[in-house]
């Protein structure tokens, strides 16, 4: 059986599709017995879903540089 710390890491890796089959199986087994991690996993999935729906846009490196230069000029 894995620890709760290891389960949280695997849960996050699963969220980003980075966990292997063996890790997923170990996580599923842990979630059967650990209510706390089960709740964490469920909330993590909800958060991922909400972030996907939020349509958040990240600034490009060039936009960040322009903003940085603008702020430096104002100071």
Strand-helix topology:
Elements lengths: L3 H12 L5 H13 L1 H19 L7 H14 L1
Structural description of this entry:
This protein has 75 residues and is an all-alpha fold. The chain has one domain (4-74). Helix content is 77%, strand content 0%. It has helices at residues 4-15, 21-33, 35-53, 61-74. It is elongated. The mean pLDDT is 93.
Task: Give a count of the beta strands, DSSP E runs of length 2 or more.
Answer: 0
Principal-axis shape: elongated
Strand content: under 5%
Q: What is the averaged pLDDT score?
A: 93
| Number of helices in the DSSP assignment | 4
Order of helices and strands: HHHH
**C-alpha-based Rg, rounded:** 19 Å
Helix share, percent? over 70%
Distance between the termini: 56 Å
Main sheet characteristics: none
Helices and strands: which structural class? mainly alpha
Q: Give unreliable regions as ranges.
A: none
Number of domains: 1
Features:
mainly alpha, 4 helices, 75 residues
